[in-house]
Amino acid sequence: MDKQPGMQKTLFEKIWDKHVVKTIEDGPSVFYIDKHFIHEVTSPQAFAGLKKRGIPVFRPAQVVATADHNVPTLNQHLPIREEMSRKQVDALISNCAEQGIELYGLGHPFQGIVHVIGPELGITQPGMTIVCGDSHTSTHGAFGSIAFGIGTSEVEMVLATQCLLQSKPKLMRITVDGTLQKGVVSKDIVLYILSKISASGATGYAVEFAGSAIRSLSMEARMTICNMSIEMGGRCGLIAPDSTTFEYIKGRKFAPAGVIWDQKKTEWEQLFTDPDAIFDKEYHFIAEDIQPMITYGTNPGMGIGVNEFIPTQDQVHASDKSGLTKSLTYMGLKEGAPIKGQSIDYVFIGSCTNSRIEDLRMVASFVKGRKKAENVEVWVVPGSKQVEAQAIKEGIDKIFEAAGFQLRQPGCSACLGMNEDKIPAGKYCISTSNRNFEGRQGAGARTLLASPLTAAAAAITGKVSDIRELL
Amino acid sequence: MPLPLQKIKSRFVPLNIENIDTDQIIPARFLKATTREGFGKNLFRDWRYINDDENQPRSEFVLNQPVFSGEILVAGKNFGCGSSREHAAWSLLDYGFRVVVSSFFADIFRNNALNNGVLPVQVTEAFLEKIFAQGPETELLVDLENQSIRILNGEDTSGKEENTETFDINPYKKTCLLNGYDDIDYLLSLKPEIEIFEKQRGGN
Question: From the list A24, A169, A320, which residue is nearest B172 (CB)?
Answer without folding.
Answer: A24
